[in-house]
Amino acid sequence: MPTYLYFGENEFFLTCTIKQLKTHTLDQQWANFNYTEYPPESKETIPQALSDIMTPPVGSGGRLVHLPNSTLLGVCSKEILLQLESILPKIPSTNTVLITNTHKPDARNKSVKLLLEYAQVKEFPLIPQWQTQALIQQASDFS
């Protein structure tokens, strides 16, 4: 499945998992061409990202489109929602979409419901320091 939704406040494990996904997806020689990160500040980022998702990778390896703190997890316009509905089932197997956020997305939102149908979801919660067994388990799971 070429769509991933990662969220949580544990920035260290989130960043490490993103690095692993980049290493697994991208050919290092073609990474500059095939990795695109779209910041959430501009209104043009979502249409550009949706276009980039369907673009085949350059050279060898795959393409990774990263949307950190994306507005797709908030309220989307109907046209963006319709584009997302048509694109998500047709994403080429060589392309990967990664949507990350520091907060848990609201599952009642239409765009989030749609993303949850197609995405592999992983949460990165902060574990309180007094839960030592959970911290040990998380450290051993990661390594």
Strand order in the sheet with the most strands: 2-3-4-1-5
Please estimate the helix content: 40-55%
Helix and strand run: EHHEHEHEHEH
* Topology, number of strands: 5
List segments where confidence is low: pLDDT < 50 over at least 5 consecutive residues. Answer: none
Please, what is the average pLDDT?
A: 89
Radius of gyration: 16 Å
User: Helix count, per DSSP?
Assistant: 6
The N- to C-terminal Cα distance equals 24 Å
Beta-strand content bin: 15-25%
What structural category characterises the helix and strand content? Answer: alpha/beta
Largest sheet, in brief, is:
5 strands, parallel
Q: Identify the overall geometry.
A: globular
3D structure, described in words:
The protein has helices spanning 11-25, 31-34, 45-53, 78-87, 110-118, 132-142, and strands spanning 3-7, 35-37, 63-68, 95-101, 120-123. With 143 residues, the protein is an alpha/beta fold. It has a five-stranded parallel β-sheet, sandwiched between helices. α3 runs parallel beside α4. The chain is globular. The model has no long low-confidence stretch (mean pLDDT 89).
